Amino acid sequence: MALTEEEKRMVKGYNAGYMLSIYEPRLIEQIIRNNPNNDFVLAMRVGRDYHHFNVNMPRKDQSKEFRNGFFNGRTLAQHSPQMIDNLLTGKGLHKDYKKGLEAARKENQVMSIQEKMKQEPKTPKKDLRNDQNFQKGFNVGYRLAEGHGHILGHYERTNAP
Predict the structure, then answer these.
(1) Are 63 and 33 in contact (CB under 8 A)?
(2) Which residues contact 43 (CB under 8 A, 6 or more apart)?
(3) Which of 134, 141, 143 is nearest to 155 (CA)?
(4) What is the pTM of this model?
(5) How many Å apart are CA 118 and CA 152, to the nearest integer?
(6) 152 pLDDT higher than 70
(7) CA torsion sign, 54 to 24 to 114 to 37?
(8) What is the DSSP annotation of the chain?
(9) Taking 70 as the threshold, does the pLDDT of residue 134 lie above it?
(10) What is d(CA 59, CA 67) in angstroms, rounded to the nearest whole number?
(11) Which of 5, 31, 156, 161 reaches 20 to 30 Å from 58, CA-CA?
(12) CA distance 131 to 125
C-alpha cells in the first residue's frame, strides 16, 4: 500500500521534532511557539513530546494517570485498536488517562507509517549513470525534450502510478 504525501510529511515532522528535542531543545521550542497552526510543526511537537516522555523528563501535563494510560494504550494499540476507541468514547475514565490512550494511539500510527516506509522499495545501490538502459532512456528523453516536450508530458500523464 502506497503512503500518502501527508503521511510521509507527518513522519518526517515527527522525526525532526524528536531529533531537535535531543540536540537543539531551544530551537524546537522557538519553532513550535512561532508556528502554532502548521501541520508539520504539530508533527514536530508530537516527536518532541515523545522524546520527553521516553527520557522521563518531568512535565506538568504528564501525570501518573497519563503515564498509565500511555503504557496501557501502547499495548492496546498494537493488539486491539478497537478497544482504545471504546475506552475513549466511554465514561468513567480519568481525563489524563484518556489523554495517555490518545497519545499512545497517535504514536502507534506514526510507528506503523514508519514501518511502511521501511518496506517501500529503495533506489538501486549501483550508480545508474553507468547503466546501459538508463543512458539510453536519458538520451531519448533529452532529445525529445528539445522539440517534442509535449510527447514526454503525455507519456508521464498516461504512465503515472
Answers:
(1) no
(2) 9, 10, 11, 12, 13, 14, 17
(3) 141
(4) 0.59
(5) 31
(6) no
(7) positive
(8) -PPPHHHHHHHHHHHHHHHHHHH-HHHHHHHHHH-TT-HHHHHHHHHHHHHHHHTT---TT--HHHHHHHHHHHHHHHH-HHHHHHHHHSSSS-HHHHHHHHHHHHHHHHHHHHHHHHHSPPPPSS-GGG-HHHHHHHHHHHHHHHH-HHHHHHHHHHH--
(9) yes
(10) 11
(11) 31
(12) 12
**111 φ/ψ angles, rounded to the nearest 5 degrees:** -65, -35
Nearest to 47 by CA among 63, 31, 68: 31
pLDDT tens digits for 80-132? 888 888 888 888 888 888 888 888 888 888 888 888 888 877 666 666 666 77
22 contacts: CB under 8 Å, gap ≥ 6: 51
All cell numbers assigned to 159: 504512465
Residue of 10 and 143 predicted with greater confidence: 10
| CA–CA separation, 22 and 55 (whole Å) | 10
The C-alpha cell of 74 is what?
A: 501502547
